[in-house]
Amino acid sequence: GTLYIAGQVGNDPKSGKQAASFEGEVRQTLDNIGVILKAAGMDYSNVVNVNVYLTDISKFDEMNKVYREYFKADRPARATVQVAKLVGAYQIEIAAVAHE
Q1: Pairing of strands 77-82, 47-54
Q2: Which residues, 6+ apart, have CB-to-CB distance to 82 below 8 Å?
Q3: Is pTM, for the whole model, over 0.85?
Q4: Phi, psi values for residue 17, rounded to 5°
Q5: Between 20 and 30 A from 47 (CA), which of 26, 27, 77, 89?
Q6: Sign of CA dihedral 10, 32, 6, 14
Q7: Alpha-carbon gap, residue 40 to 18, rounded angstroms
Q8: In the chain, which residues have pLDDT < 70?
């Protein structure tokens, strides 16, 4: 009943291309998580823990605005940390844990 979602980044799985803007990268990252959740018969309401990795913590508010569109109520526990660099040129990576 527990689903561990490894770090997801803002690339389109069909084209393999990174989103052009930071907001687009956040949306694509969360959309990618949504696809994994759906494949497991879950949705965002099943997520109980999220780790957000940002290369620039000053973009927290911009990330959080988009994040709140996906997690509207009863938000999961979350840690947000700044990291020096992520694989490739990504600015955000999100790992999550969901439970039925």
Answers
A1: parallel
A2: 53, 54, 55, 56, 57
A3: yes
A4: -90, 145
A5: 89
A6: negative
A7: 25
A8: none
Q: Which of 58, 41, 20 is nearest to 99 (CA)?
A: 41
Q: Cα angle vertex 15, ends 12, 18, to 5°?
A: 45
The full 3-state SS of the chain, as one line of letters, equals CEEEEEEECCECCCCCCECCCHHHHHHHHHHHHHHHHHHCCCCHHHEEEEEEEECCHHHHHHHHHHHHHHCCCCCCEEEEEECCCCCCCCCEEEEEEEEC
What is the model's pLDDT at position 73? 85
C-beta separation of 37 from 2 below 8 A: no
